[in-house]
Amino acid sequence: MVVKRLCNNRQGKIKNISRCTQCACSENAKTFASFEPTIEPEESLALIRKTLEDNSVDHYKIGKINNYRSADKWQDWAKYLEDCVKLLRPTGKQVYYKFCLRKLAPNVELLPQEKNPDEYIVRYTPPKQTSLFE
């Protein structure tokens, strides 16, 4: 099982990222996109839309930039969380919203699994080893 991790990227790289995750999906690999640290919400939302269009991501982890000495206060993080929920919840995709983002949008109602970091962990199970001398 292969897991592809994505993070914030510039618009010009969307096609390359999408191609990589499509290849993984075509091999029945579980994929996840980690949108953290999000610096520019609109860029992250554009990437999320692209992955939804081509169905190339199974699980999303979404957060915001941290330890930025409050220089990110100009972002409307509550709106970003609302936009993510509106985009992703109707799809039935597995989504985890990190606490750093949730605490800035306490009025956005999330499902229990959207707040549980252990809910959708993809684990690798190695194949059973066979012995030549059994």
Number of domains: 1
Between the first and last Cα atoms, what is the distance in angstroms? 27 Å
Largest sheet: 3 strands, parallel
Q: What radius of gyration results from the CA coordinates?
A: 17 Å
Order of helices and strands: HEHEHEHH
Shape: elongated
Beta fraction: 5-15%
Number of contiguous helices: 5
Helix content: 25-40%
Mean pLDDT: 78
Low-pLDDT runs of 5+ residues are 1-14
Please identify the structural class as seen in this structure.
alpha/beta
Strand order of the largest sheet: 1-2-3
- The tally of beta strands, per DSSP, is 3
Please, could you describe this protein's structure?
- It is a single chain.
- The chain has one domain (11-115).
- Mean pLDDT is 78; it is low at 1-14.
- The chain is elongated and about 65 Å long.
- The protein is built from five helices and three strands.
- Helix 2 (41-53) packs parallel to helix 3 (77-88).
- The protein is α/β, with parallel strands linked by helices and 134 residues long.
- Strands 1-2-3 form a three-stranded parallel sheet.
- The two termini are 27 Å apart.
- Strand 1 (32-35), helix 2 and strand 2 (59-62) form a beta-alpha-beta unit.
Descriptive keywords:
alpha/beta; 134 residues; three-stranded parallel beta sheet; disordered N terminus; 5 helices
